[in-house]
Amino acid sequence: MADPNAGALLALTGISKAYGGVQALADVDFASRAGSIHAVLGENGAGKSTLIKIISGVVVPDTGLIHFDGAPAKFQTPQDANAVGIVSVFQELSIIPDLSVADNISITRPPRRFGLIDHRAQRRRAEELLAEVGCEDINPLTLVRDLPLSRRQMVEIAKALGRSPKLLILDEATSALTSADVERVYGILKRLRQAGLSLLYISHRMHEIEALADTVSVFRNGRHVETFPAGTRTGEEVVQMMIGRDVSNVFPAKPVRTVAPEPVLEVDRLSWTDRLSDISFTAARGEIVGLGGLDGQGQRELLLALFGVMRGVEGTIRVEGKPARLAGPSAATARRIALIPEDRKTEGLMLPMSIADNISLTALGRMSRGLVIDRAEERRRIGEMVDALKIKVGSVDDPVATLSGGNQQKVVIAKWLLTEARILLLNDPTRGIDVGTKEEIYRLLRRLADAGTTILLYSTDYEELIGLCDRVLILYGGRIVRVLEGEEITETNIVASAFNLPVGEAAAGAEAARP
Amino acid sequence: MNDLRIRLSQNIGPMLALALFLVIYVTYSVMHPRGFSVDLYVQNSNEVTSLVLLAMAQTLPVLLGGIDLSVGSLMTLVNALASELVDGSPAEIILGMVACALVGAAGGLLNGLIVVYGRLQPIVVTLATGAIFSGIALFIRPTPGGRVDGDLNWVATNAIAELPATYGWWDSGEEPVWFGLVSGIPMPVVIVLAVVVLVWLPFRNSETGRAVYAVGSNEAGAYMSGVEVDRAKLAAYTLGGFFAGLSGLYFAIQTGSGNADPIQAGTYTLNSIAAVVIGGTSMMGGSGGVIGSIFGVMVLRSITFLFRVVDADSAVGFLANPLLQPMFEGLILLFAVSLGAARVMRMKNQLQIFR
Amino acid sequence: MDMSRIGNGRPTIDKPLLFAGGFILVILLVGTVYTLATQGTATLLSPTYLVLQLKVAAFLGLVASGMMLVVLLGHIDLSVPWTMAASAMLATAVGGAAAIPVGLAVGLLIGIVNGIGVAYLRVPSMIFTLGVNVVLRGLMVMLTGGFSPSSQPTDLMLLLAKGEVLGIPGPVIIWALLGVSVAFLLNRTRLGRYIYATGNREAAVYLSGIDTRLVLVATFALCSLFASISGMLLAGYSSKAFQAMGDPYLLPAIAAVVIGGTSILGGSGRYLGTVVGTLLIVLLQSVLSVMQMPEAGRQIIYGVVIIAMLLAYGRGARLRL
């Protein structure tokens, strides 16, 4: 190659960024050209989000150069990047809930009259931009807080278009959208490419990239692995690039059962608001039951309902044969149910507190005499857990915030293992975790199941459902639409059921979704 | 029509406060022997104006999601200062008033600078600067006293009719016809309206003013969207200080003297917070506004008025005890904030309670 | 990252203790230089003076102890002044053997009301406790206005407040005992751990199967209990219960807690810090008055010291994305 940056709209050379001791990006060269949709791929923690934050001026790199439109650029703040025409659509991050849609769209540089915001012009502008993204139905006066999630995301996109970008960054921009909106967004993006914009597209959905991108870049561990024209690599190859080695054999073998084990968790006609309806299933001792389907079909709500978080749940839940009235997580804990929540940083851990304090929190009652904590016992139990789960710690008195994502998740799991939970509910537990730790968690879950724990696992990663689960319940619109068992658990079947299509018909669509 | 409904639903807090005020005040006026008279309006509006301005001052930090425990002390400081400066020739008086407003703004700016660049929590910063402001006030005015121009006091605390009369504007002795229509409006109402129209509304509709709401609603999101976060915070605290300065200035003009009383400062601060909450501004920041806070003060004070006219010999005579006023103000405050509990109780997903 | 917020308030070098402790020495030094220069004596270093300061500090120290617990949760209790006054006034009004139990019960009740407002109704604590304070004031005014009950402390209250054991004043002994209990509560009991955890991230504690609402109610109840104990002692010390007796304690108590290194956002802080913060504030006020500093100067120095201390070690993290 002569000059890889020739004709590039944006060119990064030698960009590095470290947070504390963690190298988020290491010596990255990257370029994108006008009139292109450029997909950026990588696992969580691969450095994609740091990359786009640097490009959009949210964080300043430690070293390296940025060239934009042929000229050197230095972005200290998002305003700097905005000024040259770099605009980002962050996943729900930059929306202001208490302001109206029109205010949000023109949050900076609003139309003015006599130095003040010209509300009438601002409203017209909002209407135009909303029409451009096909959301004429949104009244610009509505507070963003009052809009459903998918509409908020469309407002974000309208806001970005309103800044007349040359380079538009979309970070997981479609994850919250309804399928109709996704189609609309695809149309818009292709039109923008035609108009000569450079689009950076970050997504986890392979089929989206297949449908949209003309160029693909893969990142791993803070490094830029390779950039290639879309369609020149197979899906397997791309995945290997992302994780750095072969994908097979990461899952432990599933046991073969001859007799059905006794049911531990029996759910009968469970309903909650309009998000869950008529959910009935059982999970047996030692079984790993997966929850699958498209994201946002009620899987999270189901786990929370089983943990007593939801109010107004109808139907019955039986634990080990006895009806359970779960008024709250404390009641669920008493029935030896455990939940590994969706967001470990805000729901699973007290980040500034020590590893030890985090591990022992839930089980303090088991290591106390009366109200007084038996500290020797506490230390002993914590030590056992750190060893058993191979949590890599300097000292258990260090803040849990200093651990890597994978080790943080192990702390959350350790917390619950100390309670000797019988039923383990996991909400996408391997998100943002490195592959090595993922494998450890898979083996741990199988070990726990073999020891008699009942596991209910929601995962956005089909591979996990296929590799780990004895049965998979596919949810669609808050209902169980299909139960896959044994050999039936294949990607094709999962995808087909996820769209609530009969298995045979959807085969073609499922193939398209396969990388 | 749809637009109107949206706007109404977005301003439900201030409207509830206004409705509550109207109910209480009309009841009071009916019971009062001089009810519905210019005299009574003038008297009542004099009693609320200082707190109205102070509640406006408190609103701005609260919109940011913070709080200002120093507004009362800053008001007292400016009050003490005004008792030294606002007297003498017309030029001296005007300069003195300008100085008072500027000192208020400077005090607010000081709070803002420490919060923004010191990265400290507003509650502890303003707790400390409150002590400093009180100290300076005591330094300026160790004992109550001082003097404020008498004409100014007369004009500022009466109906608008007294303005031309005092300064002899209509030399020919006949006032214009249009003036007859407005001459009954109490001067404090004119002052507050002027501050709202000339200062608050332009600010609210400026980019910086909107940035204050944006920062209070979602600071990280505002930053990512390219909003000047630090500038918005400094502007909010400074404008708050300016309003607190006006409050101290009016208090001096109204009482004709200065008094650096830290206890009174504390009471005013607490009442200003109560008024902001009753007026529908969210303590979490991002929604509300000074107009609601004005109604909040009017609700608080009209309760006081109402209990003044209760017949001491009647069955509810104990209500007439002036010492009981604070309790009812407190109950109204508790009632107003507990209304939000209904929303909490309705949350089907209990995790949302912690957001 | 702000190191003082890390590790459950057990950093290797405790900056708050270092700074506040050092500043106490500075105060004593400056005051002693002053007395040596003007009177030729080192009054401030005499045991009598120091014991007297401890005694004065005990009332604030008790209030600050309770306040600290609430602040650790990330909340605040502005009803402390009238909790003190109401407990003392009702205790003296009842009189006799029931006086102290009645006072404690009043404190407990107020705390539970505060806790319910904050934990169940989810009203911001600053607003709810502010309202409770105002309502309490109204109730007390109504009571004393209507019935003018006795405001004489009982013999036991007098004994506790004015008595001595081996030269150590009663309030100091009570402060020491209860202080040790608070330290024990925070470091060794489940409730203590739950308080720190809830102050850090209530959602995570809730999802760990702990009813955080009960933690909140219990903590607010403890805070009010401490205020009522302080109020009754103060009534004994002043030989009467009176209306505004608690007012001078609110802001210094908050100041003592934050100067002692407890984060106003909750989740971290050590009890010893609160003790040192209390001593700092009491000594600062006392030495300034020994030095005949007028009230104006005292207020200004007081405010500047709080800000300077916090700028030295209480700064928050930069907005990081």
Describe the structure.
The complex is a heterotrimer of chains A (515), B (355) and C (321). With 515 residues, chain A is an alpha/beta fold. Chain A has 18 helices and 24 strands. In chain A, strand 4 and strand 5 form a beta hairpin. Chain B is mostly helical and 355 residues long. Helices cover 71% and strands 1% of the residues of chain C. Chain C has a two-stranded antiparallel sheet with strand order 1-2. In chain C, a hairpin with a 2-residue loop joins strand 1 and strand 2. By secondary structure, chain C is mostly helical. The chains are: A alpha/beta (515), B mainly alpha (355), C mainly alpha (321). Chains in contact: A-B, A-C, B-C.
For the biggest sheet of chain A, the summary is: 6 strands, mixed
Classify the oligomer: heterotrimer
Rg of chain A computed from alpha carbons, rounded to a whole number of angstroms: 25 Å
Derived structural class of chain A:
alpha/beta
Structural topology:
The complex is a heterotrimer of chains A (515), B (355) and C (321).
Chain A: E1 8-19, E2 22-33, E3 36-42, H1 48-55, E4 63-68, E5 71-73, H2 78-84, E6 86-89, H3 101-105, E7 112-113, E8 116-117, H4 119-132, H5 149-161, E9 167-171, H6 179-194, E10 198-202, H7 206-212, E11 215-220, E12 223-229, H8 235-243, E13 263-272, E14 276-284, E15 288-292, H9 299-306, E16 314-319, E17 322-323, H10 329-334, E18 337-340, H11 344-348, H12 355-360, E19 368-369, E20 372-373, H13 375-388, H14 405-417, E21 423-427, H15 435-450, E22 454-458, H16 462-468, E23 471-476, E24 479-485, H17 491-498, H18 507-513
Parallel strand pairs in A: 3-10, 3-11, 6-9, 9-10, 15-22, 15-23, 18-21, 21-22
Antiparallel strand pairs in A: 1-2, 1-4, 4-5, 7-8, 11-12, 13-14, 13-16, 16-17, 19-20, 23-24
Helix pairs in contact in A: 4-5, 17-18
Chain B: H1 2-10, H2 12-31, H3 38-63, H4 71-85, H5 90-118, H6 122-140, H7 150-156, H8 162-167, H9 177-182, H10 187-204, H11 207-217, H12 219-224, H13 229-255, H14 262-278, H15 290-308, H16 325-346
Helix pairs in contact in B: 2-15, 3-10, 3-13, 3-14, 3-15, 4-5, 4-6, 4-13, 4-14, 5-6, 5-13, 7-13, 11-13, 14-15, 14-16, 15-16
Chain C: H1 15-38, H2 47-72, H3 80-94, H4 99-119, H5 125-147, H6 155-162, E1 164-165, E2 168-169, H7 170-188, H8 190-200, H9 202-206, H10 212-238, H11 250-259, H12 271-290, H13 295-313
Antiparallel strand pairs in C: 1-2
Helix pairs in contact in C: 1-12, 2-7, 2-10, 2-11, 2-12, 3-4, 3-5, 3-10, 4-5, 4-10, 6-10, 7-8, 8-10, 11-12
